[in-house]
What we know:
Blueprint: H1 2-53
Amino acid sequence: MAFLKTILVILLVYYLFKTVVKLFAPKILNYAAKKTEAHFKERFGDFMQENTSNEEQVGDVIINKKPPQRKESSEKVGDYIDYEEID
Length: 87
């Protein structure tokens, strides 16, 4: 009888824990996400401000030239030999 009582207590604790986690998990994850966002803003806020000041203004014309392309050699490397199968 004690074994059955122990199993029932374990199952009750398991399902109670499962229900509590379903209720509070979204709130805990939301809190963790906000704390992480605040941490990243604190660490990388200066970096983002430096990059945004160097961005081009709307309407600026930017010309990016292509690098000169190498011309491939047109020298013949060898002769083409057509082999025939012999029976």
